[in-house]
Amino acid sequence: MSGPLLLHSLAEFREIIFDCLDVVAPRSLVEVGAEDGTFTVELLRWARDHGAAVYAVEPFPTPAITELAERWPELRLVEERSPGALEKLEGADIYLIDGDHNYVTVRAELEAIFDGGGDPPRLVFLHDVGWPSGRRDMYYDPDSLPPDAVHTHTHEKGVVPGNHGVVQGGFRGAGHFAWSRHEGGPENGVRTAVEDFLAAHGGELRFATVPCVFGLGAVYPASAPWAASVDDVLAPYADNGLLARLEDNRLLLYLTVIELQDHLAQASTVVDQARLERRDVDAENRALWARTAELEHLLDARVQDLETKLERLRGEMEHLARSRAFAVAEGISRARGVGGRADSHLSRRRLRELLEATRPS
Ligand SMILES: C[S@@+](CC[C@H](N)C(=O)[O-])C[C@H]1O[C@@H](n2cnc3c(N)ncnc32)[C@H](O)[C@@H]1O
Prior knowledge:
Layout: H1 14-24, E1 28-32, H2 40-50, E2 53-57, H3 63-71, E3 75-78, H4 84-88, E4 94-97, H5 103-114, E5 123-127, E6 138-139, E7 153-154, E8 178-180, H6 190-200, E9 205-210, E10 216-221, H7 227-234, H8 241-322, H9 324-336, H10 348-358
Parallel strand pairs: 1-2, 1-4, 2-3, 4-5
Antiparallel strand pairs: 5-10, 6-8, 7-8, 9-10
Helix pairs in contact: 1-7, 5-6, 8-10
The structure holds S-adenosylmethionine.
S-adenosylmethionine binds next to strand 1.
């Protein structure tokens, strides 16, 4: 099996989006947030076949998207942040909003797109209207936003479904983005931005949601000539209970994978530490073995030396025990000590016993 563990691209909605493109027949499309161009290239194929232009708004272009811009005359890469970039672009027929997933950005993007009443009518797809960004701001670059529009946030902690705060572990940005520290409440999240925008713009806009792969929203005027056809495309998927359950399950499984990966990373750290300690112990052991060998060598030499000396001493004692001088001395000693203790006399017998005792058994 291959492929990404976590589906996250707009490309996963290709059947829905291209069916909508076929009925709207746009002359121009804008993708906000192109990342590595996974979906951009599919949009470009469609655009080439239908004589349309594609604008990709991406403030942090990857080499892949830059290369696409060089190869495809249909693509114009706008290396700026949205919504500022949108305000400068000419109105397009279709927008795919998938950039900075937070309230202030998405609300301003919708304002920019529908500024002037939205004529000709626009179809806007918005990614991430479901969990986790639907009701919680995510920030790629919080310092680039107006400070009073940014919730207190964290780059380190993660989020899990059902917990409105943040947690150690969980689904997190790994340095790429930050989460608002709380979920829900006013002016928080992509879906909230869409709902507030719709509330402020009366009932002429429709909003449908496909509840999977982080949620796809579609906003379009009910009066558009193609609105009924777009309704038909979206109908099987919109608010589909089966898709919603599969999404809940997918998120649960993915969060379990993250948890297991975190455990594995902790276990790897412990193993690495143990490996380092073992390396130190091995080095100590080698030093101890070397010292033991050195001492054994010294001991052997010392024993050898002592044995040589002992051998010489034995020879001298043998010689002494056999000498006449010692026999005479023994006689004198015995005569003088008559009546004294027997073991205080000089004695050849004792000398020989001592000699015998020094021989290895
Ligand atoms: C989730 S990715 C887009 C994925 C892509 N649309 C797809 O479906 O394959 C989000 C992208 O938005 C970009 N981005 C972040 N802030 C942005 C902003 N203010 N305007 C436009 N793009 C932004 C990020 O650099 C990132 O590449």
